[in-house]
Amino acid sequence: MSEQRFPLTYFGAIFSPTKVYAWRKKLNRWQQVFVYIFLMSLLMIPLTLMISKQTDQAFAAFFPHAKTLMTAETAAEYSELQLEDGKLLTDESQVFSQTEAGIIGVALSEADLSRAKYAVNFRETDWTIKEEIDGQTYHYEMRYTAEMMPDQVHDAASFQKVIEDGFYRNNETAIFFSQTITVAFLLVAMNSILVMGAAFFLWLTKKSRLSTISSFKESTNVILNALGAGSLVAMLAGFIGADIILMIGIQSLGMLLMLFLAFLKTRFKTA
Questions:
Q1: Which helix (H) or strand (E) holds 139?
Q2: How far from chain centre, in Å, is Cα 108?
Q3: Within the chain, how many helices (H) and strands (E) appear?
Q4: pLDDT at 80 over 90
Q5: Residue 242 DSSP code
Q6: 133 - beta bridge partners?
Q7: Are 230 and 259 in contact (CB under 8 A)?
Q8: Spatial separation of the C-alpha atoms in residues 131 and 62, rounded to whole Å
Q9: What distance lies between CA 125 and its chain's CA centroid?
Q10: Which keywords label this protein (predicted)?
Q11: 65 near 73, Cβ under 8 Å?
């Protein structure tokens, strides 16, 4: 029978504690990179799906002050408006609510908007949000969406929901990619520390002759082999709602369990 080739050699090792250690010489440098990217991809799949469903967190992060303007009073005012074909059927100026720092209403004047640190302004063909964070002022101009129909607003919570959905639909692509890149960077950083740190400590066993590992490359291969099964379980946990911290925890626990079983099976002394 011919010898198995990559990637079969990797998938043949991740479920066998004996092969996790015994096949420590199977992966070359490029194959290590491929396996590392593959393991990251397993975790990114459910995380990406979760990001695509998080409309409220995006709004809260961008507009921590403007969201306070969505009250029962302003919800009642908004519910009286009429939207048709993406246009507001009024151009009459109306202030729903105004405080020292914020204002919300219809066709607000430039003077009112300039004095406010945060504002929500509904205009005839679009709506705007102004927010000031740490001295920086941000402006967003957006179209009306189907999620923003006034008849869907009954209280403060439903008002905030339609505004969140409207903001997300207008900025869906930018929000999705920015959050995905952030999560991917965090995941790569955490897994790099996990892989390199664990490989380093495993490599140290060479110094005390506790194992037959002869190089840092071999110890890295052992860790990558041990991460396989745990990463698959972490991916499944992500599909049922686990967050990134819990997924990393499951992945790490799976790696430690596989290393422990590999030690019991081989004593790290196989050829």
A1: strand 136-142
A2: 36
A3: 10, 7
A4: yes
A5: -
A6: 136
A7: no
A8: 8
A9: 33
A10: Membrane, Transmembrane, Transmembrane helix
A11: no
Q: Residue 34 and residue 7: Cα distance in Å, rounded?
A: 9
The pLDDT value recorded for residue 57 is: 60
Q: What does the chain come to in residues?
A: 271
Asked whether residue 231 carries a pLDDT value surpassing 90, the answer given is yes
Fill in the amino acid letter for 255: M
Q: Which two tokens stand for residue 139?
A: 């402006």
pLDDT greater than 60 at residue 1: no
Largest CA distance in the chain: 83
Please, are residues 258 and 230 in contact by the beta-carbon 8 Å criterion?
Answer: yes
C-alpha to C-alpha distance for 180 and 51, rounded to whole angstroms: 7
What's the mean pLDDT when you consider all of the chain? Answer: 89
Check: CB of residue 119 under 8 Å from CB of residue 108. Answer: yes
The CA-based dihedral angle spanning residues 145, 139, 50, 152, taken in that order and rounded to the nearest 10 degrees: -30
106-138 burial code (b ≥16 CB/10 A, e <16): bebeeeeeeebbbbbbbeeebbebbbbeeeeee
The b/e string for 192-207 (b: 16+ C-beta within 10 A; e otherwise) is eebbeebbeebbeebe
Q: Is the peptide bond before 7 cis (omega within 30 degrees of 0)?
A: yes
Model confidence at 271, pLDDT cuts 50, 70, 90, reads low
Task: Say which residue, 210 or 266, is predicted with more confidence.
Answer: 266
- The pTM assigned to this predicted structure is 0.75
**What type of residue sits at position 213?**
I
